[in-house]
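Hey team,

Filing this mostly as a record. A colleague (T.K.) asked me to run one chain through the structure pipeline before their review meeting, and I want the input and output archived in the tracker in case anyone asks later how it was produced. No errors, nothing strange. Just documentation.

Input sequence:
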Amino acid sequence: MAAWAYYRLPHADHFIHIQQTSGEPEAHLSCAELNCRQGFVVAPFDIRPDQPILLIRPDAVEAYPLPGKPGISGIPGKSGKSGISSPSPSYAVDFANYHAQLLSGTFRKIVLARCADETTAAPIAPEELFFRACRRYPRMFISLAYTPQTGYWLAATPEILLENDGPQWRTIALAGTMKLEAEQLQGEGETVTWSTKNIQEQRYVATYLTECLEQFASDFREEGPRTVRAANLVHLRSDFTFSLPDSRHLGDLLMALHPTPAVCGLPKRDAFRFITHNEHTPRRYYSGFMGPIGPSTHLYVSLRCMNIEGGHYHLYAGGGLLKDSTLKQEWLETEAKLETMRSLLFDS
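Output structure:
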């Protein structure tokens, strides 16, 4: 089967189908190798020879109207399956290990991720799950990609890594998470009061992006932070807009940005190394990035995602830990994030 991808931009009423009609996608071992390239990118968190960046060649590109209409306010349906309120033993071990590094001052922030496996009585076509996500989550970037190397990956993510509108470029610092409850679900999170932990976590990410952009961009400015909604969660977001004097070196900027502290930690290099050696569940293509690159670039961090294998689904989520994080609090945050994908499986 040839490699292909569907994607739908936030609030769009159509989706794009990109198809490579022959051969396998290009495999790359560095973001810098994406300089001057075009296609649909499927990138992992940890880029390795057995887990490369894949670039689907855009042999055929078509736009189609979305079937059905978006759900009201993008509120997720109830999955009919309750989350697990008590942390798993493996997650508890990871949390204790990560938290000890924060208390000792090794890291200012570090992100702990996990995977939850689900099954359905009969397999659901990946394309159907994509359309369910488009209807339910109009605010998010929805993508479904298939390659022979990776299989099917579906993401519904609010986090822009890098995108452009003509000569103007944009990235965001997205961090901090709260779950909307009861009457809050009728709004955009305007009544939420943010904790010091969430504010500090988001500020770390924004500061890091500023330092990266100073090396590559001109005329950049930051707006925010502000509260933004994604499904039944809200986050703190700052927007960075800027110009790139030479967009032919886009891959070099991606190399500096990925992975951002929002999915890794600070100091970034040390946190990345610790995660890849200590996390119980390999992230694979979760917390990497996906999207089209070229004259029109829309690259998003692969959050709220699942790997689809017939009637088996591997759901991924993570959360940023600081010194004052608690095991129960962080577990419940990942459960809330997993519900974004889980609800697609059990409520059509």
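Quick notes for T.K.: The two ends are 27 Å apart (CA to CA). The chain is about 25% helix and 35% strand.
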